[in-house]
């Protein structure tokens, strides 16, 4: 069983396919800022690997690119512990078996982390070898800021819970 | 004239991006095309001009599912060229890392990609709702394969510890010990897997395939052996190009491989390995094969899921043998010095025979690389299966017929992304 306060941030995506790199860019920027409040990981998004990673922490933040028809750079935050994934195609994972399937599978098997939040960044260009689009890159910065705030809040809640216990 | 076209624009539950088109006229299957439309990957061109020592890390990127197969074929081909023989514990460690990859790849295919075909689900997620215990077993089993890769390869995806001559670092005995306990559980889980898949309902379809695989002198094939067939072929990897040729077809970015002798297709992969090396399986794997009704020869490609389960038992068994007999080597790699020449090797990727050829100059720079992945080799055979079998399913309603066609493709566990090849372009500038 994962420690009740362990936090993991997982950036998902294929680094070679344009905006699909968005989730991994978030992870990289957090790593560069010597962020120490959570374990930060990157993965290409194969569902079983993702599932195994999610099992290791009680609180997991997933960051992935998505295609839903919204303008590029749109950020969606979905608390997966309370709601299901909206209809959208996440990432460009192989097998067509990626983040959405990993979350559904964890849900079916009862292994979803106690708290699981998805940040999805709408992408535009998923061509092989393409760079991350400027609008998506700006959204990556916004997600980094949101995550830092969210982690601070999580920390405060935890301290309050601890001190009141 | 009645005409029916079965078209699957984006084939689900295969590695990579592909499609399927079958044309039926007057109740007969007229054509079957397995379309690969991923862009070319250019790996053979990337390698030119690089130092040979970089090869294992570059080719590992060809596939996220079977990077070890690419690394092993590459290092063996380069060692063949450089006159290096890797033996003893380092050779055993190479078998161990291959076991990890087979467990990982076979289990993913069995549980998440192929089993839903037999149990009537759209995918592994839907199947998990009714078969949670089985799916959990599969995920735990796959994880043991991942752990072998993590330990020996340095990381689970795109491992970095393999080098020409051996490994950058060899594990300590005590590091391998915890894996043994997990592998004992995994071996039991693999046996349960074999029993589980043997209860599936298999279409009774067979073809008289030309099976091609490696056959070593005294072990089930991973890294070594002669390339043999059930029609008398028996050659070394150096003679591969003399017996096999690749041709380009308009509907695919993957080349189609044929036997030069009669232009015929051939089958590589679990079914071919099993049929040509049944006597090389461990006693336990052979015993379970017999128990679940697999004879020494199996020509039914739908039963390949059973063969994958048997090979998973073998991989667990072999991994345990290596761990139990492991002695730490004096150094993690044999020394290598560059020299000019051409080197050849074939190994057994989970999906089948993988052939590599490299040409080097005296400084060790790669002049030429050829990589023939199993999916390219199997593609002609896969299309012939569709042509041959689909006629027997034409009475089914359209949705069921389409599913049967997709299942026929998934028998092969095609790895489309690795099959995409550099397309040679000849320009006449006169």
- Low-confidence segments of chain B: 422-430
What is the distance, rounded to the nearest whole angstrom, between the alpha carbons of the first and last residues of chain A? 22 Å
Termini Cα gap of chain B = 48 Å
Q: Count the E strands of chain A.
A: 6
The global form of chain A is: globular
Helix content of chain A: 25-40%
* Basic shape of chain B: globular
Percentage of residues in helical conformation of chain B: 40-55%
State the major sheet of chain A: 6 strands, mixed
Mean pLDDT of chain A: 87
Which radius of gyration of chain B do the C-alpha atoms yield? 21 Å
How many helix segments of chain B?
14
Enumerate the spans of chain A where pLDDT stays under 50 for 5 or more consecutive residues.
none
Structure description:
The complex is a heterodimer of chains A (165) and B (430). Helix content of chain A is 37%, strand content 21%. Chain A has helices at 22-32, 47-54, 99-109, 134-164; strands spanning 7-12, 39-43, 59-67, 75-79, 89-90, 115-122. The longest helix of chain A has 31 residues, at 134-164. Chain A is globular, with a radius of gyration of 15 Å. Chain B is an alpha+beta fold and 430 residues long. In chain B, strand 4 (162-163) and strand 5 form a beta hairpin. Chain B starts with a strand and ends in an 11-residue tail after the last helix. Mean pLDDT of chain B is 91; it is low at 422-430. At the A-B interface, helix 2 and helix 3 of A face helix 4, helix 5 and helix 6 of B.
């Amino acid at each position: 069983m994962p420690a009740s306060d362990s936090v993991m941030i997982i950036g998902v995506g294929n680094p070679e396919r344009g905006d699909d790199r968005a989730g991994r860019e978030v992870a990289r920027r957090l790593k560069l800022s010597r962020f120490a409040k959570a374990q930060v990981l990157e993965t290409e998004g194969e569902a079983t690997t993702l599932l195994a990673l999610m099992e290791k922490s009680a609180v997991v933040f997933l960051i992935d690119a998505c295609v839903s028809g919204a303008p590029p750079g749109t950020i969606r935050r979905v608390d997966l512990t309370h709601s299901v994934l909206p209809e959208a195609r996440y990432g460009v994972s192989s097998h067509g078996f990626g983040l959405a399937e990993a979350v559904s599978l964890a849900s079916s098997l009862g292994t979803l982390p106690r708290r699981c939040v998805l940040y999805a960044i709408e992408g535009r260009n998923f061509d092989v070898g393409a760079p991350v689009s400027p609008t998506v890159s700006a959204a990556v910065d916004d997600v980094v800021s949101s995550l830092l705030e969210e982690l601070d809040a999580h920390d405060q809640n935890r301290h309050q819970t601890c001190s009141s216990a | 004239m009645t005409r029916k076209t079965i078209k699957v624009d984006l084939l689900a539950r295969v590695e990579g991006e592909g499609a399927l088109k079958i044309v039926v006229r007057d109740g007969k299957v007229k054509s079957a095309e397995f379309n690969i439309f991923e862009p070319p990957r250019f790996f053979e061109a990337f390698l030119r001009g690089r130092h040979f020592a970089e090869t294992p890390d570059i080719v590992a990127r060809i596939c996220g599912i079977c990077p070890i197969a690419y690394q092993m074929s590459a290092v063996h081909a380069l060692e063949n060229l450089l006159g290096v023989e890797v033996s003893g514990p380092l050779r055993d460690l190479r078998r161990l890392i291959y076991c990890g990859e087979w467990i990982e790849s076979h289990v993913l295919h069995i549980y998440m990609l192929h089993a839903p075909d037999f149990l009537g689900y759209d995918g592994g997620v839907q199947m998990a709702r009714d078969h949670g215990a089985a799916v959990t077993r599969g995920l735990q089993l796959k994880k043991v394969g991942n752990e072998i890769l993590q330990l020996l390869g340095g990381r689970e995806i795109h491992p970095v510890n393999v080098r020409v001559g051996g490994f950058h670092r060899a594990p300590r005995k005590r590091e391998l010990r915890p894996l043994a306990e997990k592998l004992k559980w995994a071996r039991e889980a693999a046996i349960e897997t074999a029993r589980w898949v043997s209860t599936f309902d298999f279409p009774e379809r067979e073809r008289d395939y030309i099976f091609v695989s490696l056959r070593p002198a005294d072990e089930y094939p991973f890294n070594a052996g002669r390339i043999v067939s059930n029609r008398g072929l028996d050659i070394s990897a150096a003679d591969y190009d003399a017996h096999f040729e690749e041709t380009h077809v308009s509907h695919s970015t993957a080349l189609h491989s044929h036997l030069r002798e009669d232009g015929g297709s051939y089958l590589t992969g679990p079914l071919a390995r099993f049929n040509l090396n049944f006597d090389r399986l461990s006693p336990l794997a052979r015993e379970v094969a017999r128990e679940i009704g697999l004879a020494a020869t199996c020509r039914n490609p739908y039963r390949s899921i059973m063969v994958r389960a048997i090979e998973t038992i073998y991989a667990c068994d072999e991994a345990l043998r290596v761990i139990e007999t492991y002695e730490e080597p004096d150094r993690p790699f044999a020394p290598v010095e560059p020299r000019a020449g051409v080197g050849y090797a074939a190994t057994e990727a989970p999906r089948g025979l993988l052939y590599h050829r490299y040409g080097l100059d005296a400084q060790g720079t790669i002049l030429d690389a050829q990589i023939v992945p199993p999916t390219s080799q199997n593609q002609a055979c896969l299309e012939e299966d569709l042509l041959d079998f689909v006629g027997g399913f034409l009475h089914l309603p359209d949705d069921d017929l389409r599913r049967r066609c997709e299942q026929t493709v998934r028998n092969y566990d095609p790895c489309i992304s690795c099959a995409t090849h550099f397309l040679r372009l000849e320009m006449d500038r006169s």
